Amino acid sequence: MSGKTIFITGASAGFGAACAHTFATEGNRLILTARRIDPLLRLQAELSTGAEVHIIPLDVRDREAVQGAIESLPERFRDIDVLLNNAGLALGLEPAHQVDLDDWDTMVDTNIKGLMYCTRLILPGMVSRNRGHIINISSTAGAWPYPGGNVYGGTKAFVTQFSRNLRCDLHGTRVRVSCIQPGMAETEFSQVRFKGNDEQAASVYQGTEPLTAEDIAETVRWVVSQPSHVNVNTIELMSIDQSWGPFAIHREQQ
Ligand code: NDP
Ligand code: 8X3
Fold this sequence. Notes:
The termini are far apart. The protein has a single domain (5-237), classed as 3-Layer(aba) Sandwich (Rossmann fold), CATH 3.40.50. By secondary structure, it is an alpha/beta fold. It is globular, with a radius of gyration of 18 Å. Helix 2 links the parallel strand 2 and strand 3 (52-57). It contains eight helices and seven strands; from the N terminus they run βαβαβαβαβαβαααβ. It has a seven-stranded parallel sheet with strand order 3-2-1-4-5-6-7, with helices on both faces. Residues 139-141, 183-184 line the site of 2-hydroxyethylsulfonic acid (8X3).
């Protein structure tokens, strides 16, 4: 895959950084965005031998900043072929009656509203060129409930359904929309969820072989490299060590 302009949100770590590496082949132009500039600068230095790399420090929650970033893209980076809506996070695992409301706000603002802003602002160019591909990173948490998943899972259910609805709106165009739903993958995700508690974060993956960021990058690469008449709607993937539990049944003490 070459000659594509690829806009990645959340490129400073995890899936987004792995996708940047995967797409950093000659002829591609990468727009790498995230809040932290240092990892973006490192990526730019590493990848610039393979691809043209433009970095933008960007908080996707800031609608005006997203608009400004897209409007001020250098000419060579304007015609975006692939938007990878990847920036996102989970915060906490407390039951709904105990969570910090600020955490819920942050997840909604990032996982839902940030993704909405990037999509809405990049999509018109794709439609007018009659080509493009939006790839949304959802989660198994958007399809399957678990205790403490409350708003995180809700935001990812939004991403999944929004992806399907986009396909309906784009019917008749050559703009593709794909939704990837990974299960447990070892990245900075759990360090963020548990707010820097490394021990708690490590315990999530202990004794398992979780998905890796490279597994997700390979999935995204495969989805993007399908012939232009093939729209991969949804892919759900999990570590072999993860599956489902039974329904929980509360029983009164006899
Ligand atoms: P990481 O924590 O490793 O990476 C998350 C990325 O999102 C970082 O680059 C971070 O950059 C960026 N980000 C977070 N908030 C914002 C913001 N407000 N504005 C811009 N960028 C932001 O996690 P993953 O790579 O694992 O997660 C990537 C996506 O995959 C997320 O949407 C996550 O929900 C989803 N996912 C993760 C799974 C997992 O088990 N790891 C499984 C299923 C889905 P910075 O902090 O520099 O802004
Ligand atoms: C991340 C996977 O299971 O921690 O989306 O919610 S999980």
